[in-house]
Amino acid sequence: MPKLAPVQALPAAESSTQSHAAAAIARATAALARLRANAAARDSVAEYDLLCARAEWYSQRGDTAAAEADLVELARLARELNDLPRQLAAVTRLYEHEHRARLGTSSIRRISMTPATGSSSSRSRLAAG
């Protein structure tokens, strides 16, 4: 294998990370499907853990909509489990996700120092769930 210059190595590393993320998402999605297929023996904690990992991989890939969907589902599962530490973790991750997304897409608000309003869509889904 030829040695790559540092500048050339970066895109190769990014491509490798993207392919690892895609494979991890596929494995988590398949595992979630197997878990959800057996409704009688549902393991909500395992489902929570898989969604948690998949949301992270989606975030690393830049798929913010898929990450947000998994984070909203995390919060719903934690509430269903009546597990306060998981509820706090899920809501915190969702808040951080929305905050990063808002900073990344609303540079005009940051520059003008206008108060940014949060995404009410995921909050309303949490309240409705």
The domain tally reads 1
Number of strands: 0
Mean pLDDT: 78
Give the number of helices: 6
Estimated helix fraction: over 70%
Strand count, sense and barrel status of the largest sheet are: none
Report low-confidence residues grouped into runs of 5 or more. Answer: 106-120
Shape category: flat
Instruction: Please give the radius of gyration in angstroms.
Output: 18 Å
The class by helix and strand makeup works out as mainly alpha
Give the H and E element order: HHHHHH
- Please report which band the strand proportion falls in: under 5%, 5-15%, 15-25%, 25-35%, 35-45% or over 45%: under 5%
CA distance, first residue to last residue = 52 Å
Keywords:
single chain; 129 residues; mainly alpha; 81% helix
Describe this structure in words.
This protein is mainly α and 129 residues long. The chain has one domain (14-128). The protein has six helices and no strands. It has helices spanning 6-37, 44-61, 64-81, 84-105, 107-112, 120-128. Helix 2 (44-61) runs antiparallel to helix 3 and helix 3 (64-81) packs antiparallel against helix 4 (84-105). The longest helix is centred in the N-terminal third of the chain and has 32 residues, at 6-37. It is flat, with a radius of gyration of 18 Å.
